[in-house]
Amino acid sequence: MNVDLDLLSMQEMRNAVENAKKAQRKFSKFTQEQVDRVIDAIAETAYKESLHLAELAVKETGLGVIEHKKIKNELGSKGVYESIKDIKTVGMINEDKQQKIVEIAAPFGVVAGIVPVTNPTSTTIFKTLISLKAGNGIVFSPHPSGKKCTVEAAKICMKAAEQAGAPEGLIGWITEPSMEATQALMKHRDVNVILATGGGGLVRAAYSSGKPAYGVGPGNVPVYIEKSAEVKKAVKRIMDSKTFDYGTICASEQSVIADQNVKELAVREFKNQGAYFLNSDEKRKMEKIISPQPGKLNPKIVGKSPVFIAEMAGLEVPADTTLLIAFESEIGKDIPFSIEKLAPIFAFYTVKDSKEALTHADKLLKLGGRGHSLSIHTTDEDVAKAFALEMPVSRVLVNTPSALGAVGGTTGLKPSMTLGCGTFGGNITSDNVTVTHLFNKKRLAYGTKEIVVTNKEQKEDYKTEKNGTNNEQLNMIVNEVLSKVNGSKDLNKETIQALVSQAISKL
């Protein structure tokens, strides 16, 4: 019997949303202690399953490195949990006694969780934790190429949550995702907010759904090696970052910009650490593999090893090659090495100074990375601050691997698998998205000052009344004085003053 998978997917989505809504109504009555018990159970269980889920993800998607995906899963579970566990999300969460304002948390309802193929399991764990900690239910739409591992991650989280007391159906998913079902999920009347991580088209669909949405933009991240940098350490950090999970984190560096003073030293260090520099002929062949169409990344190289990508281009490189690098001087959509490459491939630019580096970085960001991140290696605080002030990005990462620093692994930033790009990149937030973005804050505000309010009619009545009273008093004073002076022979200034004073005192 033939089964219409699109119809099946649509019906599964509707059932999942209906179940999540019912479960969330019950969950919204949970105390903070009950919610935290559920969150703790999910984080603990997902952390224990990190390796298993990493193996599933690499096997199904063919992308990345198992050991690195395990680290992502650990960050998405325990790392995220540690950052949110003490945040109040139920009932009265804050009180300002001086301003006499009480803040009260109220969950959004049902979250639509869109999951990318590059980070399928870690994103699922992360979005589950922050959604449920805020009192919400969540329904996942996986990427078709990572649907099995995404659903398995969701099932692991669901089982742990229900064993800890969460209502059945609080976490849902689409096992056979389609674009139609995903778009219908985002527009469903019972979905209250969208967490969209994926390609540009999907994120735009989230923003045009008519629902509140947290989407993220691409991350064509430049990395600048400034003349004062500790070059050996800088190159090691860049290599660790760019080769991590074969470059599938959107915050991984995409192009090196090096001061001419340290260029030769940087090139030598890259080579010492396994990077292969392409000659001009090899570069031309690689360009066709990176971007068969101007401005479009070849999805077949995403998350693949440098040796595999070299073979695609018909090149022979050493078996221990860690990174493919080409010298570049131009920037544009028709320059393949200058676009975002979610793979272990670099463009290498040389500049005179930090001023020229700013110009290069800005041009690279305009290709698709505005609002995301920029990395810099320097010992000059003024240079770092100048980049932070000038660059249209939400994160400037200093002396740290960009891919791990941006998601909160090696910095004090909030651990997150959804990195906002602000209005620079067309997003509603520039934050690392976390639990505080997923609940409403109601405010109980007491009066602290009095304001006298009068309208125009009241003012006119007041004037009339006041003038009338003054005229009556004046007439009484005059009559009083006249009654005293009539027929008086001893009338002088002093006498009149005394009579007026007497009359006024009586009034």
Automatic annotation (TrEMBL):
GO function terms (MF aspect): acetaldehyde dehydrogenase (acetylating) activity
UniProt keyword annotation of Oxidoreductase present: yes
Native source organism of the sequence: Fictibacillus fluitans
PANTHER family reported in the protein's UniProt record: ALDEHYDE DEHYDROGENASE-RELATED (PTHR11699)
Keyword annotations: Oxidoreductase
Domain of life: Bacteria
EC primary class: oxidoreductase
Transmembrane feature ranges: none
Protein name as it appears in the record: Acetaldehyde dehydrogenase (Acetylating)
InterPro entries, per the entry: Acetaldehyde_DH_acetylating (IPR013357), Ald_DH/histidinol_DH (IPR016161), Ald_DH_C (IPR016163), Ald_DH_N (IPR016162), Aldehyde_DH_dom (IPR015590)
Domain Aldehyde dehydrogenase: 11-273
Gene3D superfamilies from the UniProt entry: Aldehyde Dehydrogenase, Chain A, domain 1 (3.40.605.10), Aldehyde Dehydrogenase, Chain A, domain 2 (3.40.309.10)
Enzyme Commission designation: 1.2.1.10
